[in-house]
Amino acid sequence: MSRYVIRRVLLAIPVIFGILVVTFAIARLIPGDPCHSALGEHATAEACAAFDERFGLNKSIPVQLGIYVRDILIRRDFGVSIRFSIPVSELLIQRLPVTLELGTAAMLLAILIGIPAGIISAVKRNSAADVATMVGANIGVSMPVYWLGLMLAFVFAVLLKDTPFSLPPSGRLTAGLLPPPFYEVWGWQLTQDSTSFLIADFLSNFAIFNSIITGQWEILKDALVHLILPAAALSTIPLAIIARITRSSMLDVLGREYVRAARAKGVIERRVVLKHAFRNALLPVVTVIGLQTGTLFAGAVLTESIFGFSGVGRALFDAITGRDYPIIQAFTVVIAIGYVFINLLVDISYGFIDPRIKMS
Amino acid sequence: MAAQTELISTDAAIQDLRSRSLGSLTLRRLFKQRNAILGMCILLVLLLLAIFAPIIAPYDPELVLIDIEDVARREKPCIHLLGCPADRPQHIMGIDGNFRDQFSRVIYGTRVSLFIGLSTIGIAVVVGAVIGAVSGYSGGWVDNIIMRFMDVILAFPSFLLAIAIITVLGPGLQNALYAIATVNIPIFARLVRSSVLSLKEQEFVQSSRALGASHARLLFARIFPNALPTLIVQSSLSIASAILEAAALSFLGLGAQPPTPEWGTMLGSERNQVFTSPHLVFLPGLAIMITVLAFNLLGDGLRDALDPRLVQIAKTK
After folding, report:
1. Model-level pTM?
2. ipTM of this model?
C-alpha cells in the first residue's frame, strides 16, 4: 500500500511544478510592465530600476522562475496585493476558510442527496422516482449557478419573506455579529505573526467550527442559516452529476453475475444493493466527486459574489475587476494545487476501495 | 414482370445493406431515444430563432426606446392577451435597465450563444484532434511531452484557467472564445490520442500500412473515421459546458461586453435588480438553461446511440 501511495505522490509533483510554470508564464504575459502597473504611469526610470531590483525582475527568466517557486513552496510568500497592500498570504488566511466551509457544505449536500437518489434510481429503474431523478439531474447540470443563486435569493428573501421559510440572501453572518475567535475565548496568549497565531487565526475563521468548539450556539445557528442558500446553489451541478454517475454505475454492477449469485443464495435485497452492488459501484462515484471539487471552486467565484460571502472566490472576482494580478496568480495556484491534492486523495482512496488497483 | 420484381428486390436488398451503415444505424437508434429527440427539437427551435431573429424580434436588440415609446425603466412585461391595456406598447418580456425590449434581446442572444458553443468547440476539436493524433501516432518522447503538458492544463479547474487566460488577453467576447477553446483542447487531445493508440495496431490499419499507405492517409482515412463517434458525443456535451462557461464569464464582465445581447451579460448587468425586477434575471437565465439542456440531452442520446455495448445492455435488461 505505501508503495502505491508514494508512487501517486511522486506522480503529482511534476503536475504541481507544471502549474507553477503556467501561472508564472501567465503573470509574465500580462500586457504592460509590472513596474508601471504597480507604481503608476509616471514612475521614473530610477524608481522602476529599484522596483525591478526589489522584486528580482532584472534577473533572467529561469532565475525569476526559481525565485517564484521558492517563494511559494518554501517561504509561502505569495506577493503583495496591489489594491490592499497587504500580503496575499494574509488574505488567504482570512478568506480560504470561508470558501472551504461553503465548499464542504455544498459537497456534503451533493453526496448525501446525490448518492441515495442515484441508488434508488438504479434499483427502481424506469419508475416515477427514476424518471424524476434523471429529469432533475439533466436540468441540474444545465443550470447556471449564479442564476439559480439569484433566483433562490429572490424566492427565499422576497416571496417567502415573513414566513418561517424566509432565509437571508447575503452575508455569512447577520451584520454586526462578530464572534470572538476560540483562542480569545480560551484565553490563549499568542504573539501576533507567530506560526501558532496564524494557524489559530486560520482555524478560527471557520465560523461553524469556531462556534461549535466555543459553544456559541446562536452564532452557529446564524452561520448555518446563512449557509443554506449559497450551499444549495453551489451543490446543484455536483449533485446532478453524482446522481447520474451513481445510477449508471449501479445499473452496470446490478447486472453482473456476482449480484445474481448473491440474490440466488438468498441474501436480502437491501444487503445485495448496499453491500454487494454499491461497494463495487463506488469507484466511478469517488472519481467524479474528486473532479467535481474543481467545479465547486469555480462555482465559488460566482456563488460567493452573489451571496456576499467574503471567501476566496469573491476575492478572486474583486481581483479580476480591480486587476489585482498578484491575487489572481496566487489564488489560481492555491486552488489548482488544492485540486491536484484532492484528486491525489481520490487516487489513493482507490487502493482502499478496490484492492486490485494497488496490486497492478 | 419477373425481371422487374427481381430488380426491385435487389434494389431493396441494396437499400437494406446501405441502411446498415454506421451512420444510418446510429441515426435510427438516435431517433428511438426520447431524450435525443427532445434535445434535437429544442435545438431546431433555437436554430430557427437564431436564423430568423430579425423577423421574430419586434425591436432592434440594441435600440434604446427612451424617446421612441412611453416606457419606464425595467417595466414589467406587458402582454395584450393577458390584459395589458391595448394603448400600452406590447413588450412580452418587459423593458431592461437601458430602456430596451428584453424579448428582442433574448431572441438575439440565441445567435450569440449558439455561435459561442459551436465556434469554441469547433476550434477545440480541430486543434485537440491534431495534437492528439500526432501524439498518439508518433508515440515516444513527443507523446510524453505533449501529454504531460495536457495534464497540466487539465489540472486546473477549467473555469479558473479560462479566467486566468482572459486576465492576459483582456476581457471581450473574442478572448473569452479563445480561453474556452483552450481549456477544452486537452479533452479532445486525450480522446483522439487514446483512439489512435488503440486503433493503430489493429489489422485493418496494419494491412493498409503494408499496402504502402502514407502516414497522413493512415491517420485521416483509416484511424480518424473510427475515432469520430466518441468525438461527436464529447463535442455535443462540451458545447453545453462551453455555453455555460461563456455565459458565466460574461456574467463576471469578462466575456461579451454591453450592449451585445448576450444572456450572461444581460443577467450580470441586472443582477442587483433581482429583488425588484426579477423578470430581467429570470428570463435570460432560463434561455441559457434551455440551450444547455438541449445540447446535454442530444449528447446523452448520441452516446447511447453510438455505443453498441450500451445498446446491448439496454436490450438484455
Report:
1. 0.86
2. 0.85
